[in-house]
Amino acid sequence: MNIGDAARASGVSAKMIRYYEDIALLPTAARRASGYRDYGADDVHRLRFVRRARDLGFSIDEVRELLSLWQDKGRQSSDVKAIASQHIAALHRRIDALRAMAATLEELVHCCAGDNRPDCPILADLSGDTAG
Fold first, then answer.
1. CATH code given to domain 1-60
2. Rounded Cα gap, residues 117 and 90, in angstroms
3. Residue 38 — φ and ψ, nearest 5°?
4. What local confidence, expressed as pLDDT, does residue 27 receive?
5. pLDDT of 131 higher than 60
6. What is the mean pLDDT of the chain?
7. What is the Cα Rg of the chain in Å?
């Protein structure tokens, strides 16, 4: 199948498929006599794996490691679990950081009169000017 067909079948855009080939996350596709890329069912399966892993927030390096483990039939599930557990911890750290950002912004919005005056605690905070 051509790249458009592979994109539709996998849910990964043609641009991302080319990128994944460039960074060797996906093997370079065979070429037809016309020069067009030619993908098979295994490529689509791999692209679906990558898409799902990326949807769950795994980094490219983590996806690369997960792909390696997925293809290794002698793998230990504990290796996969360790990667997923580390990713969960990173997600929780990001969630905590986002909650802290939201709390700060909520406080700044609460302190802003939102009227016609130029005083703005939001801009003062962003600029580092505590005087307003």
1. 1.10.1660.10
2. 42
3. -130, 120
4. 92
5. no
6. 94
7. 23
Half-sphere exposure of 55 (CA within 13 A, CB side): 9
Residue 55 has a pLDDT of: 97
DSSP 112-127: ---SSSS--HHHHHHH
pTM of the model: 0.82
d(CA 7, CA 45): 11
Query: What's the CA gap between 110 and 41, in Å, rounded?
Result: 55
For the chain, where are the E strands, in sequence order? 30-31, 37-38
Q: How many angstroms separate the Cα of 132 from the Cα of each of 36, 115, 118?
A: 60, 15, 9
**Residue 96 confidence (pLDDT):** 98
Instruction: From residue 26, give the alpha-carbon distance in Å to each of 22, 36, 44, 68, 86.
Output: 8, 16, 10, 11, 24
The confidence score (pLDDT) of residue 35 equals 85
